[in-house]
Amino acid sequence: TCQSHITHSATGTSIHRSMESTPAPPLLTPHKMGQFDLSHRVVLAPLTRQRSYGNVPQPHAGVYYAQRATKGGLLIAEATGVSDTAQGYKDAPGVWTKEQIDAWKPVVDAVHAKGALFFCQIWHAGRVSNYKLQPNGQAPISSTDKQVSPQMSADGRLEEFSPPRRLAKDEIPNVVDDFREAARNAIAAGTCYSPILLYFIGHSCTTTYSIRF
Ligand SMILES: Cc1cc2nc3c(=O)[nH]c(=O)nc-3n(C[C@H](O)[C@H](O)[C@H](O)COP(=O)(O)O)c2cc1C
Question: Required cofactors, per record (predicted)?
Fold first, then answer.
């Protein structure tokens, strides 16, 4: 469980101790983050990898994350969709089906086996999406019907976004529920906590919220 793991990580001060003769650089000193005792301050930022074929995490994700895990360290998983309307990138993982939850479990176990904490970043891409990524080729849902202008992707391709459908007020609670359910699913998969990435309000004011369960 997270708690037994945290207790375990509290003893993970090997980096600090091994540097008794020279003071450890601040980055490598322990840090208490809420209920969590980190043994250093190097955190893996969430990085969308687009290798979760069909939105299901693959076994190689366990290798990738475990390679970056250290005793008492913190990893934040790549943005993970809360529902089938949440996807904004091909082959990004999700956490809304049993298959996805089951696929996350060995990934989380591999990270915990190295003594690190693992947070799941749950998100909805809102209008930063296109018909091809949406169920039945529908319009991406958003708070607005204004389309995002095309953008150059990190690998130099021009990315186009489809005109979104502005949600009616009474549809918004469904999205809130998707986040609620995804947070529970992430915890069922073994992660401790879910930072939330929300493109929904309008991606020019992207906000990352962290909530505690
Ligand atoms: C390929 C790539 C994928 C990324 N994926 C995510 C993501 O899934 N979630 C997120 O919050 N940030 C994502 N980011 C942003 C990184 O986490 C961010 O670049 C990192 O925190 C470093 O911050 P900086 O770019 O301000 O230096 C991504 C960045 C890159 C380059």
Answer: FMN
